Amino acid sequence: MKNIVLFCAAGMSTSLLVSKMQAAAKELGVDCQIAAYSLNELTAKGADADCILLGPQVRYQKDKVTAAYPDKPVAVIDMRLYGMMKGKEVLQEALKMMGC
What we know:
This protein is of the alpha/beta class.
């Protein structure tokens, strides 16, 4: 089971996107765990992630996150996909990053 972790400023706005990603994973038959957290929880939650996605509002932290977890794929969620809450598309990007 893959663990996809999303980080944003407070963890709230990203929760809706996580719900849509979870629904897409179920629809596609993908076995994964998806959760959203505040960037303040990076140290506690990032270590177990197979893929780290950042909300557009914290894109300026990408280099810091990549440096902290150089062995994990890290990306900023496309602003358009995030704004339109396109969970399936974001999930597909995460899967691609993990080589699935």
